[in-house]
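lol ok so funny story. i was supposed to be doing the assay writeup but got distracted and ended up predicting the structure for this chain instead. priorities right. anyway since i did it might as well share w the group, maybe its usefull for someone
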Amino acid sequence: MTACVAVPVMSLGTAAGELGREQGRERGFTTTQYVTAVAMSLVTFVMLANVVVDRYQQGALRAAADEGARAGADLDAGARDCEQRGHDVLVSLLGEPRARSVKLSCRVVDGSMRARLRARLASWFPLVPDWDVALTGSAPKEVAP
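and the output, tada:
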């Protein structure tokens, strides 16, 4: 004995045509989603990279303030030596154009050399604010025995 089962038959032309139209619409929507996701990812990446670079610049500014203060704390050194050493460190770590935008001042306060730096860390992206940085490095001034 054999059993017969009735199976509904669809026209292949109609089903394939409808499927093709639906895929065409969805493909365009997927492209829009992909482009939007990539753009948002790139913006996030640039913002994070900006934060990393700002942290590096803050470290370079801290090193320049500390090095300047140590150089100016020598027995026969003064504020000019402090400023020169701080500027040299800035040039070596940040480059000449960026080092020129940093304000560095040194003076002796209560027996120690103080190097004060002021700088603005510019943002790469309009939504991220610029950072104003003020750092002070200090080293005890040497005295003659």
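The chain has one domain: 28-140. The chain is about 55% helix and 20% strand.
back to the writeup now i swear
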